[in-house]
Design brief:
Two copies of one chain form a homodimer. By secondary structure, the first copy, chain A, is an alpha+beta fold. Chain A has helices at about 5-25, 30-35, 40-55, 70-85, 95-105, 115-125, 180-190, 215-230, 255-265, 265-275, 290, 325-340; strands at about 60, 70, 130-135, 140-150, 155-160, 165-170, 235-240, 280-285, 295-305, 310-320. Chain A binds a DNA duplex through helix 3.
Chain lengths: ~350, ~350
DNA sequence: GTTAGCAGTCAATGGGTGAGAGTGCTAAAA
DNA sequence: TTTTAGCACTCTCACCCATTGACTGCTAAC
């Protein structure tokens, strides 16, 4: 904070976080000296460490213990790795290939993308992962059709530019004559075709300048179907590997585990947490004040089409997580997913790989 | 086992299980004596206890500890409560009313029944609960319709006696003429209408004695839609209150908690476990050999329509669970749900309560 | 500014001890 | 023969204490 650190302090801080991430134990001056700075003595490292402690980067759990990174130290660490290189370089070519491969292999239908991505991210990083699909309401109704069935039933079909939206069987109270159905279909199309789903939220039937006559019932019915769809269609959150967090000593008490899991399992609180970071491309949030989950770090990547964020993928793990790897995996997935959503890479839409 | 226990042994065994269920601690002879058998001395209880130990009902964790029930003791206990009274009597009228009330209040659409029931059972008992809905394949196709849309797209609508089944937009490669669509619709109906979904599994198009001509593509398409539906439509399992198990000291180590949760979270293994008990009306399975989950008891109730099991509801908890209450709640839910599914109690199908 | 050496601090470990809980056994009473 | 009171025995658990080992901070020399 405040002023720029000396080069040696930077090296020492980086070393300390590195060591702490891999061991989870407080790091001693001699550890740092022997593994990262053989050219100086441990006493020198010690004096640098007390300086860093005064600056608020690290602390000692107790007098005779080594040092543990604080939030500021993690921030510094994350900054230094994401500026020094593109994160993806932290994965070997082989790893990159395996991940890409698994992604396309699992992807038979495009709807499974979130699930597949979450699974792969969790497997590759060994942390709990999640994916959010923003359910865009920017859907245009192309066509509404009333299809008569046997008996007095009929089906309302609503076709949109993004595919089929909803269909529902309804009872027609009147006797169904072909003319009625045809007329109703025509009317429904006049009223709804070309409209956007968002417009419908405050939509008043009486504003429409078409003849409604005996069709009010059916119009209401369709409107209700659409409204139910809009209100029920919230962002979908999928979580993978929730139990992986229990492998880390940070969460080795049942109470901690329980409080973590109860947040993770609750889709609403997850959606809340994930929406907090706006639409930053790559966001790293550490600690409860930052992300709402105690003693955790959350890394999210937003994937976009054009300028619009269409979803997010991320990892939630202990503060001392392997940021290098996580950022690498997320950047790779981000690229891959953006390409698929975008249509640049359509390997899966026809059901098989091309390469 | 082997021989019938003396009346006093029965009382002592019952008392021991009762005490162990409420405290979770090994039960001493004097506990039993003071709270359940004041007319004899603790020494007498002691000698009875060693007899029961020899018979395999109970054991001592170590020499100077009290006794703990074994599986045989729980079996005895469950038998004695379910024969002595109908379990439901173990709930007060007030409790019964509250549970019924909550059930109907939550139930706005019939599809939510499993979820609602699981939630209520879990809340009422404080254990992890689950519901399984058997997805019956006994569905008859009533009508197949090919509905042309704008452009070259069309929708296949499949109507069954149980409601709408599936619909899928397809591309028609040929130019779409009204006649083609009509002819195809007629053909599709000839082929599929009146058939049961189960027949379709090994269904050979060439066996059909209608003219196929140029319609093979569309027939294949529909057949595939149906097959995908059949294969993807497995029993649905919902689980509620998975984390409640962590409140019990039996699962206070993270490893135990993890192994429990990983079984519970996995729908497949749950479905497996739950199908194991056949269609017993009320099944109590204790211990790993019995139910596949370590140090747990599983109580399930099957709800039926006529003779057919259409679903199950149950509780999974520590071996020393409050069987009385659990059995009471499950019997109540079983009655209530059977009535709803059966159609005897249709309070919810028209969207509001009647009483 | 850096280093070696040393004293000081603290957590963790392990052995020892005493209290408490509960049993089994035995001999006497019912 | 069954039940009971009394007592010795066993085992766990909690606590204390001393020892160990891991670090640090300080100081004086380089």
């Amino acid at each position: 904070m405040s002023k720029e650190l000396s080069e040696r302090k930077k090296r020492i801080l980086h070393a300390l976080v590195d060591l702490y991430i891999s061991t989870g134990q407080p790091v001693s001056s001699s550890d740092i000296q022997s593994k990262y700075l053989p050219e100086v003595s441990s006493a020198t490292v010690r004096s640098e460490l007390s300086a860093l402690e005064a600056l608020g980067y690290i602390e000692q759990p107790h007098t005779s213990a080594g040092r543990v990174p604080l939030k500021a130290a993690y921030k510094f660490y994350v900054d230094s790795i994401s500026s020094s290189q593109t994160g993806e370089a932290s994965l070997t070519d082989r790893e990159t290939e395996i991940i890409r491969d698994r992604f396309f292999k699992r992807l038979e239908r495009i709807e499974d993308m979130s699930k597949a991505a979450a699974k792969i991210i969790s497997d590759a990083t060994n942390y709990t992962s999640f994916c959010v699909e923003k359910s865009s309401m920017d859907i245009e109704i192309e066509e509404v059709k009333l299809v008569p069935l046997k008996g007095r039933k009929a089906v309302v079909l609503i076709v949109t530019d993004k595919g089929m939206l909803a269909n529902k069987a309804i009872d027609l109270s009147d006797d169904v004559k072909g003319e009625y159905v045809d007329a109703a279909s025509t009317l429904l199309n006049k009223v709804f075709a070309g409209r956007n789903l968002l417009e419908l939220e405050n939509f008043d039937l009486s504003e429409i300048d078409v003849e409604i006559k005996g069709f009010k019932d059916i119009l209401d019915e369709v409107l209700q179907i659409l409204r139910i769809y809009v209100s029920s269609h919230t962002d979908t959150v999928v979580v993978e590997g929730a139990l992986k967090m229990l492998d880390y000593p940070e969460y080795s008490s049942v109470e901690d585990a329980k409080s973590f899991l109860s947040v993770i399992e609750d889709r609403d609180s997850m959606a809340q947490i994930l929406s907090d970071d706006g639409s930053i491309e790559l966001s790293v949030r550490i600690g409860k004040e930052d992300n709402g989950v105690d003693r955790c770090a959350i890394v999210t990547a937003a994937y976009k089409v054009g300028d619009e964020v269409v979803g997010k993928a991320g990892v939630i793990g202990p503060e001392r997580m392997d940021y290098k790897k996580v950022i690498g995996v997320l950047e790779l997935m981000k690229k891959t997913m953006s390409a698929v959503v975008d249509g640049t890479d359509r390997r899966i839409t026809d059901g098989h790989k091309e390469d």
